[in-house]
Amino acid sequence: MDTGMDFGPWLARQLKQSKMSQADLAQEIGLTRAAVSAWITGRATPREETIAKIAEALGTDLGTIHTRTTDTLAGLPVSWYHRPGYADGGREFGNAAAFAFRADVGVLAREATQNSLDERLDPAQPVRVRYTLHELTGESLARFKEEIRWDDLLPHYEAASAQDQKVGRTIAAGLRDMYERDRLVLLRIDDYNASGLTGDDYETGRFAAVVRRQLDSHKSMSAAGGSYGLGKATLWATSRLGLVLMNSTLSEPHEGRTERRLIGRLDLPWREVGGTPWAGPAWFGRPDPDADDVNVARSWWADEGGAERLHLSRESSEPGTSFLIVGAHDVASLAEETESGDVEDSDSVHRMHHRLREALGRNFWAAMTGGATGRPLLEASVRTLRNGEEIIAETRVDPQDTQPSRTRALQAFLDGTTVERLTESGQVAMTTVPLVVPGRAGRSDGEHRAVVLVTAAEDGDDGKSNRVTTMRGNRMTVRIGWVPNLPVGTNPFQAVLLAGRAAGEDAPFADEAEAFLRAAEPPEHDKWGQTEELRMLYSPSAYRRIATLTTETNRAVRDLVALPAKKRKGGSERLRKRLAVGGRKVARPVSAAGPPTLEELDARIDDDGAWCVTGEIKVPLGGDSWRPVPVAKLEVRSGPRPVLGWSELVAVHNCEVVDGAIHIAPGARGATFRGTTDVSTHPVRAVFSGLVVELRTDKGVQA
C-alpha cells in the first residue's frame, strides 16, 4: 500500500465523517470489531481482498484507499462557517488586535518574518522566507473567487461594508476597488525550515494559536522575538477583505499526515445577514463531524490540484507554512502617493514589492548575515506575478547591499576579526558594556556583557550615520538610536549593540539577559523600556537597568570613535578656518528659507519620573532666523495628544533658549537642546506612556 497518510488515522477519520462506528464497519465487511481496532491503532494492516470490502463500505474506490490523499465523502465539501452572534447581544466591530499595527506591508514584513524566525526548525540551517505579490484580473480572478466560494461570502461582505465604522469602510473600499477595476492583489508569505501549524484544530498548539485564538503567542524558542501573540494580526490587517488562507506542511504528523493542511480565516465585524446576527470571524474548511454544531469548519487535507487552485502550492515538502493575504493593500504607499502626487495607487504591486524588500533589509540584515561559525538565520526574497506570469523576477535580499556598514560590523564579530581601535579603513572595533540583569525568584543579579561594534559608515547606504542599532538573540533590529554629545569632527560611523544570545552563547548570563530584554519590549518590539510584563516579572525599577545600558553603550561608542588628540586638534583647526569670526559678514539669503526640523531625539526617564530629552535640530540654509519652540506631548493611540510642560529647557550647542524658544546661532546648520518635563503636568506616569516632541515653527515666532 502507498503511504500518503498512515492507514489507521486515515480510516479513523473516514469513520468519523461517515458517522460510522468501528462495529458498524466490522459488520459491513464481515469481520470483528477487534480487527478494525487493530487497523486503526496500527497493530495490523488489512489484506487486499479486505481493502476492497472497506472501499465498498465507505462508498469509494481502491485508488482512494491506496493513496489516502483525500477523504472519501463527497458529501462534506469545503465551505464557510460563520460564528453565530452572541446570545447576550454583544457586538464586536473588528478584531482589536489588528489595530495594534498599521496596515503596512513594511510592518507586515517585520512581524511575519519574525514569526518565521521564531519557528526555525533546524538551527544549523536558515529559515527561508519568500514574499510573492500576485495580481489577479479577468478570468484568473473569476476562477479564484469561485474556489473561495465568493457567492457565499458576498452577503456577509455587503452587510459589513454597509456599516458606518472603520472596518466596514475598509471593506467597502476593497469591494469597490475589486469590482470597478476587476483586480485583486494577493500577497503570499511562504516559509521553509519552519515548524508549520502543528497540533489539534482546537486544543493548545501552533495551529490553534494562529487560526483560532488571539493573544496566544505559543513560541517554541526562549529567544523568540514575539511574546504577545499580536503579530499574526498584521496578516488580517493587511487584507482589505479581512481574509487569509493557509497551507501548512507540518514538522510533526497530525492525523498521520504532514502535507497540505489547509484552512481559511475571515475577520469581519458583527453583521446581520438575512435577519440572522453573526459575531465576526468565519472559517473556511471541512465540516467537523465531532463538533456539537455540524457546520463548524476545521482544517482539511487538500490534494495538489486543490492547493494550486487556491494559489497555495508549495515548492517542496519541507516543513513550513504559506499564508495568502487576499486583497492586500499598503496604507504607507497611499501616504507616499498623497505626498508625492504620484498616480500609483496604494495597491501598486511595484510599489509594494519595493517596500517589502526595503523592510526586510532594514529589519533583518543581521539575521541574514552569516559568519565563520555558522550560516545565516534567515534567507529572504521577493517576487511579483500577474495572472501567473512573473513581472518582477524573484530577488533575494542581500544584507551587504541594504546595510553594508552594519553587515561588515556583524560579519567581523562572527568571524572573530574585530580590533580594539579603528586604525585603518574597513576595520571593526569591538568592546563590551555591562547589563546588570535583575534576578528572579530570589536569585541574585547577574552581569551580562553586551557587545558593542563600531565601523566607518558607507556613503549613506545604511541610512543616517552615527547611530547604534540594538538587537538580541533573534537578530531583528529593535531600535536605531542617535549617539548624543559626539565630539566635533567625528568621522561618520555605524554601531551595533548585541545583547542576550546575540552576544554569543558563551556570554555570561546570556539567557537571563535574553529573557529580561524580551520582557522589556512592547508589542511592536521596537524599543527596550518599561512594560507591564517587566514590572510583573522583575520590579517597578527594573527598566532603569536598560537606561544604564544605553548610557554605557553611548559612552563606549564615543570612546571608540574618538580621534587621537593630534588629529582632533587638526580637525578643529580646519573647522575654525571655515567659520566666519569677525571680518566681512556674509549677507543672508533673501529668499525665504524653510523652518528647522527635529532630526533626532534621545530620551530617558529620570529617578523623579520625568522625561529627559536631548534633541538635535537640522537647520536648512538660511533657516537660522526661525525661533522654533519644542513642545512635549504624551503619545496616545487616538485623540489629541496631551501637552506636557517643561521644568527645564536649556541650550547645548549652536543655540540659546529665550522664553521657551530656540534662538539658533547665525549660520548654524544644526543645533542641540536638552529638556526635562514637569512631572506635575503628566496625566499618567512616564513609565506607562510614550513621548512625542514636536517643533512649533509658526511664522509668528520667526525672527
Structure, briefly:
The chain is 29% helix and 26% strand.
Helix/strand/pairing class, anyone?
Answer: alpha+beta
Q: What is the helix tally?
A: 20
Number of strand segments: 26
Straight-line distance between termini = 89 Å
Most strands sheet: 12 strands, mixed
Query: Which regions contain 5 or more consecutive residues with pLDDT less than 50?
Result: 215-229, 334-344, 566-591
Task: Tell me the layout of helices and strands.
Blueprint lengths: L6 H11 L4 H8 L3 H9 L6 H11 L3 H6 L11 E6 L20 H14 L8 E11 H10 L2 H12 L4 H16 L1 E10 L13 H6 L21 H5 L1 E11 L11 E7 L3 E3 L2 E12 L9 E2 L1 E2 L2 H6 L10 E9 L2 H10 L8 H16 L13 E9 L2 E8 L2 H4 L1 H12 L12 E10 L8 E11 L10 E5 L7 E4 L10 E6 L11 H10 L12 H6 L5 H19 L3 H13 L19 E9 L5 E8 L10 E7 L7 E2 L1 E8 L1 E4 L2 E4 L5 E8 L12 E7 L7
Helix pairs in contact: 1-3, 2-3, 6-14, 8-9
Characterization of this structure:
The chain is of the alpha+beta class and 703 residues long. The protein contains 20 helices and 26 strands. Strands 1, 2, 3, 4, 5, 6, 7, 8, 9, 10, 11 and 12 form a twelve-stranded mixed sheet that branches. Strands 13-14-17-15-16 form a five-stranded mixed sheet. A four-stranded antiparallel sheet has the order 18-19-25-22, with no helix packed on it. Strand 23 (655-658) and strand 24 (661-664) form a beta hairpin. It is elongated. The N and C termini lie far apart (89 Å). The model is unreliable at 215-229, 334-344 and 566-591 (pLDDT under 50).
